[in-house]
């Protein structure tokens, strides 16, 4: 069976490797000149497992196990390997309420080594953090933005073995090398301009070069996913849209030059509206947003035409919020990255599924949060293609994905195109 995957980011390359492992003839197509050079290159590569949805918790945990054993997962390749820095992930929460307790219980149920910390416990463990509550989050223009609330945060979760993958682009190149070693073909600098189907066969037409014929098409096109669906004449029940994002960079005053040590874990500050992780071996920090309600989303109609420069309003919001949490930070010069998310608007969970067009599959709407699960999504898509092309109807009988590294299986309806309403924050936090 000939499988064509549109999109050479981390998701597309993971699907390619897993599809080849199941005996398919696989071709990956990307409009850029190298894999992982689109939105994957701007990913923060954070590997954490705090989610509202149990299936996402399990998938993220399985993904963390793969990243921790990356060389074994790939098999022998000549590349330098992407490094998973397991420095811990700290989530700061406005309240340790019933929902938080349920999340903690589910995380422990699947085997995650999780500590639930009080505000004072966080202050003791991480004395450089301010534990005042900033919830509900306000914009810097608010007259009380810098005023103390005289309340503490509710507490937090600490994942001891969480962290981040240092170079997401390198991880994607690792996947390409493993896939090419096994026989996967890559067509780069090829932009798909038309998707045609005749009988049981697809024909992909490019801006230049000969068309490609195949039996199966997988849309892994990231922010271009809705455009690719329209080319194929596919209308999904769930909408995906491109969302503009900025990530800013600050000098890390906590980095010790003499010891070359950084005491900061990855931090998801739900109470304060930002997340941060170390960069450049800890010398700098990158800071993004957790989408507090006071900040408007910046949706993009054309993913090839959006403002690609950093802006002062984003910088103020994200950096000043982090400075309230880490008082020793200084604002410094403007540095960072601008890119796009491919967002499933309803709930920010991926859509990994077949479609109503036979032979056409999607792994889209990953919402800036699926780098950590890319190898798991790759295997899921390969298995869905295998059983659906073999005649199974996963709409009638939803597929259960086995997660061998954590010894669990999950019902995949929560990432189906036909899912109903799910528990979700409706943000990158999930």
Can you put this structure into words, describing what you see?
By secondary structure, the chain is of the alpha+beta class. The protein folds into 2 domains: 219 residues, FAD/NAD(P)-binding domain (3-Layer(bba) Sandwich); 174 residues, D-Amino Acid Oxidase, subunit A, domain 2 (D-Amino Acid Oxidase, Chain A, domain 2). It is built from 9 helices and 23 strands. The strands form 5 sheets. Strands 5, 6, 7, 14, 15, 16, 17, 18 and 19 form a 9-stranded mixed beta sheet that branches.
Number of domains: 2
Distance between the termini: 35 Å
Helix content: 10-25%
The Cα radius of gyration reads: 21 Å
> How many E strands?
23
Under the CATH scheme, which class of the largest domain?
Answer: Alpha Beta
* CATH A-level architecture of the largest domain: 3-Layer(bba) Sandwich
Given as residue ranges, the uncertain stretches (5+ residues, pLDDT < 50) are none
Report the principal-axis shape. Answer: globular
Please tell me the overall pLDDT: 96
Find the CATH superfamily of the largest domain.
FAD/NAD(P)-binding domain
Which structural class matches the secondary elements? alpha+beta
């Amino acid at each position: 069976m000939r499988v064509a995957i549109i999109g050479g980011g981390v998701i597309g390359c993971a699907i390619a490797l897993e599809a080849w492992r199941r005996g398919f003839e696989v071709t990956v197509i990307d409009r850029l000149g190298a894999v992982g050079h689109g939105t994957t290159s701007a990913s923060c590569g954070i590997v954490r497992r705090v989610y509202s949805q149990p299936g996402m918790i399990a998938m993220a945990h399985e993904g963390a196990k793969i990243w921790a054993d990356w060389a074994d997962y790939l098999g022998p390749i000549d590349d330098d390997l992407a490094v998973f820095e397991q420095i811990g992930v700290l989530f700061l929460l406005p309240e340790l309420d019933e929902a938080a307790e349920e999340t903690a219980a589910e995380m422990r149920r699947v085997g995650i080594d999780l500590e639930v910390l009080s505000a004072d416990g966080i202050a003791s463990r991480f004395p450089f953090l301010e534990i005042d509550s900033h919830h509900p989050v306000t914009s810097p223009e608010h007259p009380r933005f810098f005023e103390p609330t005289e309340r503490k945060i509710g507490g937090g979760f600490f994942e001891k073995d969480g962290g981040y993958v240092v170079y997401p682009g390198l991880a994607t190149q690792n996947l390409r090398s493993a896939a090419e070693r096994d026989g996967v073909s890559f067509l780069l600098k090829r932009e798909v301009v038309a998707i045609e189907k005749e009988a049981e066969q697809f024909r992909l037409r490019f801006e230049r070069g000969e068309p490609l014929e195949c039996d199966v098409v997988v849309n892994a096109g990231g922010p271009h996913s809705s455009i690719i669906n329209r080319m194929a004449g596919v209308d999904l029940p769930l909408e995906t849209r491109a969302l503009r994002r900025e990530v800013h960079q600050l000098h890390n005053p906590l980095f010790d030059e003499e010891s070359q040590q950084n005491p900061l874990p990855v931090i998801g500050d739900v109470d304060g509206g930002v997340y941060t992780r170390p960069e450049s071996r800890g010398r700098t920090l990158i800071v993004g947003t957790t989408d507090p309600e006071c900040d408007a989303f910046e949706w993009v109609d054309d993913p090839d035409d959006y403002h690609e420069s950093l802006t002062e309003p984003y910088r103020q919001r994200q950096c000043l919020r982090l400075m309230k949490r880490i008082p020793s930070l200084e604002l410094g010069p403007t540095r960072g990255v601008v890119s796009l998310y491919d967002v499933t608007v309803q709930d920010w969970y991926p859509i990994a599924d077949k479609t109503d067009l036979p032979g056409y599959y999607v792994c889209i709407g990953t919402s800036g949060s699926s780098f950590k699960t890319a190898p798991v999504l790759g295997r899921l898509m390969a298995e869905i293609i295998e059983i659906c092309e073999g005649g199974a109807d996963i709409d009638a009988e939803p597929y259960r994905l086995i997660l061998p590294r954590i010894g669990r299986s999950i019902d995949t309806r929560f990432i189906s195109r036909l899912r109903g309403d799910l528990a979700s924050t409706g943000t990158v936090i999930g």
